[in-house]
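User: Can you model how adenosine-5'-triphosphate sits in this protein?
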Amino acid sequence: MDCPTEEAMIRKKLGAMSEVQELEFSLMQRMLTVTHRTGALSAVQTAIRELGMDAELVEPEGNEEPHEEATKPWWPYTAGGLAALIAEIMQWSGLPEWMVALVALLAVALCGLDTYRKGWIALRHGNLNINALMSIAVTGALLIRQWPEAAMVMVLFAIAELIEAKSLVRARNAIRGLVQLAPDHATVRQPDGSWVDRPAASVRIGDVVRIKPGQSIALDGTVTSGRSTINQAAITGESMPVEKGPGDPVFAGTLNQAGSFEYAVTADAGHSTLARIIEAVESAQGARAPTQRFVDQFARIYTPVVFLGAVAVALIPPLLFAANWLDWIYKALVLLVIACPCALVISTPVTIVSGLAAAARQGILIKGGVYLEQGHRLAVLALDKTGTITHGKPALTDTVWFSAAEGIDSLSIATSLAARSDHPVSYAIAQAGRESGIGLLEVTGFAALPGRGVKGTIGGIDYLLGNHRLIHETGVCSPAIEAQLAELEAQGKTAIVLTDGKEPLILLAVADTIRDSSRVAIRALHELGIETVMLTGDNSRTAAAIAQQVGIDKAMGDQLPEDKLQAIERYICDGRYVGMVGDGINDAPALARADIGFAMGAAGSDTAIETADVALMDDDLNKIARFVRLSRKTRAVLIQNITLALGIKAIFLALTLTGYGTMWMAVFADMGASLIVVGNGLRLVRQ
Ligand SMILES: Nc1ncnc2c1ncn2[C@@H]1O[C@H](COP(=O)(O)OP(=O)(O)OP(=O)(O)O)[C@@H](O)[C@H]1O
Ligand SMILES: [Cu+]
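Assistant: Here's the modeled complex, given as structure tokens:
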């Protein structure tokens, strides 16, 4: 698939087949994904062959190298170019017309057979692709005996096609090169304890792999022994090395530094985080961004309109105003040359793909061109507190005993309940209990109360452990407790209370630490004109205290999942483009509703990579500002490219109608425009 008009041709042909359910084009990748009924593959291939193209199956597994385009020989182009030039000179020096014609026809034959063949197939399928247009234009020029002109146009066009194909190959490779590949071999421990080099694809989950200093990591896993620092830039975009010790995750494609270690494989080669990233970027390219859809639609109308215009230009002035036939036919032929929207159509995907690749390189995984293109509109960013602004690893800070009923150890009851939950607040309490050696009691009937806390039965008594909302609803709250809570919360701490349903027993407060990156990130967002709002299940006072520390515009506390959802919806109703960052399950509905849902720390979390619109591979909130800036740049380049492509066409339209445009100038301009937009789009990769 060379030209976008070829895509239209395939779409028309395959789309009409009842066996075919879905078509997904990636012109950049020259890849077509066909969803079809079982057994229809050969029919699909035959249909494509009838269009003059050859379909090649992509191997489902392994690192398929993009097969090198068969390099076309250069000599026909050189010879054709020479012939065209000679024809021009012969015409100029007044040699007989039949001689000029002969040399010109030779040039057309040398360079144009392929174009004629493709053009003829397209015409038969009722498609006006660039090949069809050029075939008509050149044939027309020959018929009105513009010999050297016809030869020149054909040669220039053939060379332009060649250059465009080559520059697209370059674009593809540039993008592929960004996604550093993991090594294809790993040193695996055998049952007898020896170490053997094996292909990464054959390593199974649970195998132990050894990594030496300076070695790249081939598979995802968890460190079992040894220590080192690893450069994870390939995944997270951060080149600051990260310390790794037993229990820490390591990712395929990252680079070990000075230490050596062993790790247990957690995913096979095809399912590593890196493989998922590549997969996501590739499928994001297939999905069309809005501009691309617009451009495609425009192109669909543009070409036939210009074609009809050309017919009108050829017929109307001579018929109605007795103008010179040959003059106006020539003008019509120039119009045919400018009727191809190639530069316009190719400009958008190149730009979007470059943007996606640039983002991936910085550890930002964008799941579709839409988000890259629309990200510049981001007006409000909602952030979750726990785990997003803070580390999400609070520690116990205060313990307040209320009543000491005989024989009841409220601290170990609270610890035992907390140990059953994986909520960060509970986790902090359980952790503190473990450190001070508190024995755990047996809990029955345990249940989590989302947005409130937990409940469970110990020694025949039902206990509740949770936030103010919970104890207030239970009716054991008192002004004294509220005062105590208020004091702790004003310090940014989160307090929960244990009750047996009759009276409060013990109060435990935990404090989380704010990520270093949060404050800078929030400032960067404000500089981009984005309003920030914190949505948290934690109480409003703690929320306000934390928000104030990091400089967030607005804090909304005591948010149940549906409240978070409603908050997002309110912004959407106000017509504002809203993003949301979060991690927990309590954020899921809001994340899904937001115009752009960001997930943090996506490396190692498959669900985050799969469900988010934009996945940030590590925990650095600064990536959101980076994403917005990249989106703005992408948009600027898109607008530049579209303006450029259309502008050049408009200039030539004007030149032609006023009698200054020539055919070969139009070909030249079209080729120039294509090269400029591709180059401009590729600039983004280096962002
Ligand atoms: N399992 C639990 N153990 C202890 N406390 C809990 C538990 N679940 C909820 N809580 C209490 O309810 C509050 C709200 O919880 P929720 O899970 O909705 O939000 P969060 O995780 O604290 O904050 P964020 O919305 O910022 O992620 C918590 O701050 C905590 O005080
Ligand atoms: Cu209360």
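A couple of observations from the model: The two ends are 28 Å apart (CA to CA). The CA atoms of residues 387 and 583 lie 7 Å apart.
User: Helpful, thanks.
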